[in-house]
Amino acid sequence: MNTSFLDAALATAQLLIGLAIVCSSIRLVLGPRAQDRVLSVDTLYVNAVLLFLTHGLRTGNPYVFESALVIAVLGFASTAALARFLLRGEVIE
């Protein structure tokens, strides 16, 4: 595969993932309910993982992949904790 095509594809992917992060951040701020905010946080961490992975593919830095794994684990734990608090009705707004 041509290297310049791969770089262009990864740059385009990073741009689109950045746009998805902006859209998710807007939903986080404007979300009318707590459930919308939890879903936007979940989407934010998934997009952050994807952004880290595309950056790691572009640079070839192996530490970026480890950071993406840490973000994924912490994001899952935070989403599970927020969902548990929403089910109990103990979310302070």
From TrEMBL:
Its main location: membrane. One of its GO terms (molecular function) is sodium:proton antiporter activity. It is found in: Cell membrane. It comes from the Bacteria. The chain crosses the membrane at residues 6-26, 38-57, 63-87. It is a multi-pass membrane protein. Keywords: Cell membrane, Membrane, Transmembrane, Transmembrane helix, Transport. It holds the Pfam family MrpF_PhaF. GO terms for cellular component: plasma membrane. InterPro entries: MrpF/PhaF-like. Belongs to the CPA3 antiporters (TC 2.A.63) subunit F family. NCBIfam families: PRK06161.1. This is Candidate multisubunit Na+/H+ antiporter, MnhF subunit.
